């Protein structure tokens, strides 16, 4: 036995010693296969997989009979007691509005499904799984610390006694079986008009205790925390979710930090939890009589098991209270809870609060914003590093700022025209853009997650060729075009199983209004597609759809998408009569940041500006066009350009894009790496260009792959700033490429840049640029005064002349140590030969006042003389 | 009415022309100077009216020049003193509220720091911007340099003779003299390391992390020195450790904000002011046809003074900024 084992061991060692050198020899090959072997997941998903949670619990519903025996109700799907498992994909260092995947199996199939499961709208269901966010961990979590938006979700106020099934709860404390319960003392009917003091109606209140200690009575809307106000800025996140016919289900649960919800108050220091409460029905107290038919009304109600068929939908009807989500707080339901501890990451303003140094701003691409958010604390909380601050702006604007000295470095994702000084591009992050979407399958069948798009569909969206509505259909030359993606046969063929009625939301791709490298890359992807360009050049697609004439023969690629249409439909509504405007511009309504597109997608709220708002308080009424309403759950259909970082953080779905015919590539670690393999660096310190024609030949490369570069001047940069830029490049390409959710780590949506493998070229180029930026010596100018000091522009003999501020002149190119001692006053003034102070003088300045006084004096004297002269002469 | 009855009516006709040529509602005095018919009745002779015109013209020239000199040297100090009071109050509030500007970009004209030089008895609030008009209120911080006290070389311009002449004794500073700067980041004590005039070598480069402060003003030599500041003088001061300076400053300033530069942008405003003065003159002429001289006096003189004051302020913007 041991002999066989030993032989096996030797064999393994031998095999290993053969394989390792082989791998080392072909390091690129081995690295390229590594991601390939991984399952095709979202980009950098591993980064956010930290703190996976899984727990399994067994429970059952039971009724206590008259004789004290118990009847157990098992899970009807299995015939066994419930054995439920809850999985949460990541729980650590969450940030505001981040969405985590909560999935479960082993619950009972839900019934009477509501169209919108969120907040108060989700109450009319049976056997759902309630997912809430609560403050505290473990046993500290009580229903009082759990957030709900609606009063009805936490309190039962003024319920007839026969419907007050929570008073029959077997597990409830005696106090909770009182007619009015939940608070001590209970609010009187004066404080809460709904509470009945007379003993006729039952009330149970679950107050809300805010993070600052305030207790909200939660008996009506006037006693709720401020964030629960109607139409508050964020829609409800808590959900009564649906389990399918196998008792499984999943939701993307959005967590809120104290930035979004101050009363709930979750932050870096306040522990919070996601609480999953499966609703399996109230376990009922001892029956008052052995005969089932003679039970009291409330006992019968408590023993109800639902009135809707499993899997059915519910538009109007009220569910049986005993199995409804409104009693999630009752002891029977609450004891089955799963408490998932979560932690929050550093708040976005941590650097402003904890570090009083002046920040060094890097300007540029929003693609990096999620990484910058995690990176910044690793700089500002480390006194040996500078205080990094990222300021989002258009790539070109950031680059211009860098070239003219306004900022030490720019964050761009493509090559830009450099100024007088050479510029180095250090690869800092591999990420990209994606077409994010939110689409519900018809009949409440859940979200569509397999969207495929090709360049022609994107071209149709961007050129505003979908009519959107009857107004758009009036556009000359577009009368026969579909109204939206939904009724475009090409889209239907690619993505079966989606709604088929076109509307304005399907006619627009929410896009950036300003100049961006993202638009540049997106349009070059379209420009390399023959079908798409034929369509733009005026050839109808096989189903007869024609391009919007305003964009006919529009030349691609561009870095800023223009709104060219000028069609104003004949107004038929008061709004259009009052505000004649270009219809398609209102439909497209591009925005200025990717973050706005992401939040529009999270909320399912298109930016389409075609809603008619009327103010009838004025005479005549005033009309304006406004943003359309949020799309109702189950009917959402929206697309937008998002960054992969945002998509990972907010759990947005991203579309697969066509590369070779019939091959659709989604953004994954693998497809990004494949695209990197196609990109080439043409010159030292330069960026890596990704040629879209090469992508169109590859079956694996994702067309939206983009590298964000730290671009900085290679000379004439202030040495302080140069050191900071070099430090940033080095830290971000080493420590900053460690996937994870902590400070300084690389969040989801980014492919780590490593020293080996497919990203090796990027890594080496980054180090190269860091050295060059730090050295700051490129083509030397004679005379040795290439100082970047802005005031050092001598030699303009113009009227004003110029001051040369001393000190900075040699410091930029001569940071030698001997400058330090010589800087002390009055010692060794000749240590470094310094240029002489320039002559600046002005004759006007010197002569003005004497001249004024002289001329003034002469004038006065002359006036007197002139006045007196005639009389003198006459007298004489 | 009185004018038509007046024997020396021709005077009236000459005055508008002289006024138009120069400006200002100086007529009332003119009018008073010739009230009583000192000569017997009859039109004034040719010589008399010519001398009248000449006298008025010279009077106007004299008044314009002297007014300007007086405002530059004396009245300007009053308005500069008031500006300083207001700026001090504003800066004090900003400092207390921690809203004092830290750079890199500060709205022009905002107070940025309090500059104290006990040796030459200077306590001035520094404003942002060095255009001629900005320096009317006090010393100005050149916008393409760090704020006083921050790492790097900060440049502050101040007038040497007019409008209070905050920096008139700048050249008297000795090496080692103390300069205190209070701004949004705290208090810094600088020590003067040298006074420079044209041709002197620039001081040695500053050590890492040191803050330099260069005060710039103008000076004159000779008997008329104090009122003929024609050359630029620099005072360099240094402190070992400066406050951190944010990046993102403007890379350059317009020509009008450089030393001894003027601001031709004020020309349209000057045209407006002169037009108003002209309108006032015509108004006075018209008013005198109807109302008594005393009444016209009372109404017109404050307007005339205010307009003259305003016009001179605008003219200042067209003159070199350091005088």
Care to describe what's here?
The complex is a heterodimer of chains A (876) and B (323). With 876 residues, chain A is an alpha+beta fold. Chain A is built from 24 helices and 30 strands. Chain B has helices spanning 2-5, 9-21, 27-33, 46-96, 267-290, 293-317; strands spanning 111-117, 122-128, 140-141, 152-157, 178-183, 186-196, 211-219, 231-239. In chain B, a hairpin with a 4-residue loop joins strand 1 and strand 2 (122-128).
State the helicity of chain B in percent bands: 25-40%
Provide the structure class of chain B.
alpha+beta
Q: Please report which band the strand proportion of chain A falls in: under 5%, 5-15%, 15-25%, 25-35%, 35-45% or over 45%.
A: 15-25%
Radius of gyration of chain B, in angstroms, nearest whole number: 25 Å
Structural class of chain A: alpha+beta
CATH topology grouping of the largest domain in chain B: Sortase, Chain: A
Q: Residue ranges of chain A: pLDDT <50 for 5 or more in a row?
A: 9-41, 780-830
The count of helical stretches of chain B stands at 6
Keywords (chain A): Membrane, Signal, Transmembrane, Transmembrane helix
Signal peptide (chain A): 1-24
Biased composition (Basic and acidic residues) (chain A): 43-54
Biased composition (Low complexity) (chain A): 29-41, 792-839
């Amino acid at each position: 036995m041991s002999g066989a084992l030993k032989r096996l061991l030797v064999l393994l060692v031998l095999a290993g010693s053969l394989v390792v050198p082989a791998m080392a020899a072909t390091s690129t090959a081995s690295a390229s296969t590594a991601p390939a072997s991984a399952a095709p997941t979202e980009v950098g998903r591993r980064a956010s997989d930290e703190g996976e949670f899984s727990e399994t619990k067994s429970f059952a519903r039971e009724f206590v009979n008259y004789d004290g025996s118990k009847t157990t109700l098992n899970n009807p799907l299995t015939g066994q007691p419930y054995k439920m498992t809850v999985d949460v994909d990541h729980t650590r260092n969450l940030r505001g509005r981040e969405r985590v995947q909560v999935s479960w199996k082993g619950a009972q199939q839900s019934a009477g499904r509501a169209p919108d499961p969120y907040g108060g709208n989700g109450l009319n269901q049976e056997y759902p799984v309630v997912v809430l966010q609560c403050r505290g961990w473990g046993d500290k979590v009580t229903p009082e610390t759990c957030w709900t938006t609606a009063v009805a979700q936490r309190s039962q106020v003024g319920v007839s006694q026969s419907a007050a099934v929570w008073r029959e709860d077997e597990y409830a404390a005696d106090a909770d079986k009182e007619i009015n319960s939940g608070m001590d003392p209970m609010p009187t009917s004066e404080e809460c008009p709904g509470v009945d003091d007379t003993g006729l109606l039952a009330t149970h209140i679950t107050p809300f205790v805010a993070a600052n200690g305030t207790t909200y009575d939660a008996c009506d809307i006037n006693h709720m925390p401020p964030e629960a106000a109607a139409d508050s800025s964020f829609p409800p996140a808590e959900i009564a979710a649906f389990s399918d016919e196998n008792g499984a289900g999943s939701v993307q649960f959005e967590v809120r930090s104290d930035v979004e919800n101050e009363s709930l108050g979750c932050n870096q220091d306040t522990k919070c939890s996601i609480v999953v409460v499966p609703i399996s029905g109230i376990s009922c107290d001892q029956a008052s009589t052995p005969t089932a038919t003679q039970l009291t009304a409330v006992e019968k109600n408590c023993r109800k098991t639902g009135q809707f068929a499993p899997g059915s939908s519910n538009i109007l009807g009220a569910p049986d209270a005993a199995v409804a989500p409104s009693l999630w707080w009752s002891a029977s339901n609450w004891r089955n809870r799963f408490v998932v501890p979560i932690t929050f990451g550093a708040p976005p303003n941590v650097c402003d609060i904890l570090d009083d140094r002046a920040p060094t701003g890097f300007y540029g691409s929003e693609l990096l914003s999620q990484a910058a958010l995690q990176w910044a604390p690793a700089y500002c909380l480390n006194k040996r590093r500078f205080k990094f601050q990222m300021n989002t702006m258009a790539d070109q604007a950031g680059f211009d700022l860098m070239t003219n000295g306004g900022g030490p470095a720019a964050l761009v994702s493509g090559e830009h025209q450099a100024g007088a000084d050479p510029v180095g591009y250090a690869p800092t992050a591999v990420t990209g853009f994606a077409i994010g979407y939110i689409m519900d399958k018809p009949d409440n069948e859940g979200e569509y997650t397999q969207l495929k798009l090709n360049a022609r569909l994107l071209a149709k969206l961007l050129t505003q060729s979908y009519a959107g509505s009857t107004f758009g259909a009036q556009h000359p030359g577009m009368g026969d075009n579909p109204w939206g993606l939904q009724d475009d046969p090409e889209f239907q063929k690619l993505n079966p199983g989606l709604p088929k009625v076109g509307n304005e939301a399907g006619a627009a791709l929410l896009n950036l209004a300003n100049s961006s490298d993202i638009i540049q890359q997106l349009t070059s992807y379209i420009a390399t597609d023959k079908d798409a360009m034929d369509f733009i050049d005026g050839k109808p697609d096989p189903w007869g759809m024609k391009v919007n004439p305003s964009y006919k023969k529009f030349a691609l690629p561009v870095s800023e998408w223009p709104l060219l249409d000028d069609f104003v439909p004949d107004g038929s509504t008061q709004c259009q009569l009052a505000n004649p405007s270009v219809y398609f511009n209102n439909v497209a309504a591009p925005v200025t940041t990717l973050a706005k597109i992401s939040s529009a997608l999270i909320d399912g709220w298109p930016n389409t500006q075609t809603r008619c708002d009327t103010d009838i308080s004025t005479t005549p009424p005033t009309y304006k066009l406004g943003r359309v309403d949020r799309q109702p759950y189950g009917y959402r259909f929206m697309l937008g350009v998002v960054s992969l970082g945002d998509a990972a953080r907010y759990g947005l779905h991203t579309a697969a894009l066509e590369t070779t015919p019939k091959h659709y590539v989604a953004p994954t670690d693998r497809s990004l790496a494949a695209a990197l393999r196609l990109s080439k660096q043409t010159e030292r310190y330069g960026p890596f260009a990704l040629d879209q024609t090469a992508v169109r030949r590859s079956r694996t490369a994702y067309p939206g792959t983009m590298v964000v570069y730290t671009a900085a001047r290679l000379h004439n940069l202030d040495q302080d700033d140069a050191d900071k830029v070099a430090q940033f490049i080095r830290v971000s390409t080493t420590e900053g490429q460690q996937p994870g959710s902590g400070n300084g780590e690389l969040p989801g949506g980014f492919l780590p840049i490593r020293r080996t493998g497919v990203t090796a070229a990027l890594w080496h180029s980054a180090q190269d640029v860091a050295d060059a930026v730090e050295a700051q010596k490129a083509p030397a100018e004679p005379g040795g005064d290439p100082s970047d000091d802005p005031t050092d522009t001598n030699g303009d003999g113009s009227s004003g002349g110029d001051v040369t501020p001393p000190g900075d002149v040699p410091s930029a190119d001569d940071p030698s140590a001997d400058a330090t001692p010589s800087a002390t006053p009055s010692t060794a003034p000749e240590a470094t030969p310094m240029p002489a102070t320039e002559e600046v003088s002005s004759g006007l300045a010197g002569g003005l006042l004497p001249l004024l006084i002289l001329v003034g004096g002469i004038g006065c004297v002359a006036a007197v003389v002139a006045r007196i002269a005639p009389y003198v002469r006459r007298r004489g | 009415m009185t004018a038509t009855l007046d024997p020396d009516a021709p005077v009236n006709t000459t005055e508008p022309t002289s006024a138009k040529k120069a400006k200002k509602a100086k007529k009332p005095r003119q009018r008073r100077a010739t009230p009583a018919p000192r000569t017997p009745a009859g039109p004034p002779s040719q010589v008399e009216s010519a001398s009248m015109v000449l006298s008025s013209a010279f009077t106007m020239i004299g008044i314009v020049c002297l007014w300007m000199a007086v405002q530059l040297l004396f009245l300007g100090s009053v308005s500069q003193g008031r500006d300083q009071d207001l700026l001090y109050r504003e800066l004090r509030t900003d400092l207390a509220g921690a809203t004092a500007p830290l750079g890199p970009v500060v709205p022009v004209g905002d107070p940025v720091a309090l500059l104290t030089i006990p040796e030459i008895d200077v306590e001035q609030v520094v404003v942002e911007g060095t255009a001629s008009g900005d320096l009317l209120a006090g010393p100005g911080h050149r916008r393409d340099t760090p704020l006083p006290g921050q790492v790097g070389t900060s440049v502050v311009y101040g007038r040497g003779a007019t409008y209070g002449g905050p920096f008139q004794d700048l050249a008297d500073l000795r090496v080692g003299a103390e300069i205190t700067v209070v701004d949004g980041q705290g208090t810094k004590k600088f020590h003067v390391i040298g006074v420079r005039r044209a041709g002197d070598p620039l001081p040695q480069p500053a050590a890492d992390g040191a803050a330099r402060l260069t005060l710039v003003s103008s000076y004159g030599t000779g008997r008329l020195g104090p009122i003929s500041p024609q050359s630029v003088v620099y005072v360099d001061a240094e402190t070992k450790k400066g406050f951190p300076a944010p990046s993102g400053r403007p890379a350059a300033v317009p020509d009008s904000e450089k030393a001894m530069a003027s601001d031709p942008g004020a020309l349209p405003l000057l045209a407006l002011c002169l037009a108003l003065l002209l309108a006032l003159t015509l108004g006075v002429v018209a008013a005198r046809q109807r109302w008594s001289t005393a009444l016209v006096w009372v109404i017109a003189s404050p307007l005339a003074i205010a307009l003259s004051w305003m016009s001179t302020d605008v003219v200042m913007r067209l003159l070199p900024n350091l005088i």
